[in-house]
Amino acid sequence: MTRFDHLKGVFGLLPTPYAEDHEIHTADLLAAAEFCCETGQHGIVWPVMVGEFYLLGESERLRHLEPLLEKVNGRLPVVFGCSGTSVPQVLLFAREAQKAGADAIIAMPPAGTTQDVGMDMFRRLGEVFEGPIILQNASDYVPLSAEQVASVVDDVPQITYVKEERPPGPRHIGEIHQLLGDKIKTIFGGVGGRLLPEELVRGAGGCMPACQVADVLAKVMEQWWAGDEPAARDLHQRLLPILIRERQSLMRYILRRRGVFTSTVQRAPSAAFELDADDKREISILIEAIRNDVGGYPFGPE
Known about the structure:
The chain is of the alpha/beta class. About 45% of the residues lie in helices and about 10% in strands. The longest helix has 15 residues, at about 230-245.
């Protein structure tokens, strides 16, 4: 019996924090999980693309799973990211998630493989993980067609969720919704929540953005659920200028300003996306539009 019967809503993706020596900053990672719990987000996911799974070693990734689960302690569903560089590695992560008691797992086929390999991988995941499996369908990692997704869902009862982010995302969400209907519980959208209202119109019931302002997106979702579409769209539009700037540097900067991260070190920094003084000045202006909408952890000074 799973701890959570229906995963839906806004699931915050945790960026992986690093200390000055570029090792995982465990305290900051756990602080980010606490932040998600305290600010009204609906779930936690780590590590996926936002968490830079492709930069993490196997042992350090697995070493942080149990402390993460202990920190959350059942307050929110914790989804463990199992994507990797090979199918055996994906299956290894899934087996360890089963042992640790993760509430669900999410995975996509390794880059450079084929759709047949990806479909076989999802079937094999069903042999090693008993809980809910989220099929992540991303354009950069061997995307499956809607018909292929439906075939895998038929073959693997645990695949009850899909994160659909093939561009254009809302259109493909609608396609999956029409084809699969009640065979899956929730379709999660991607692209950082930038298209959330349209995704909801097309049949999405969840979203997986980076966590730094996901509490505000959770409010958008709850307003939508309550039937107040105008309020949901208004809040989303006020948040959108921040969402469209989402990069690793911005995620870490905002989490530091909200008192979550103590470090903004990156393992693979991009000079093109480093924040300069003008960027930070603009961000300070933009956050004023949502300052009163955050679920706690107010924005601190630059």
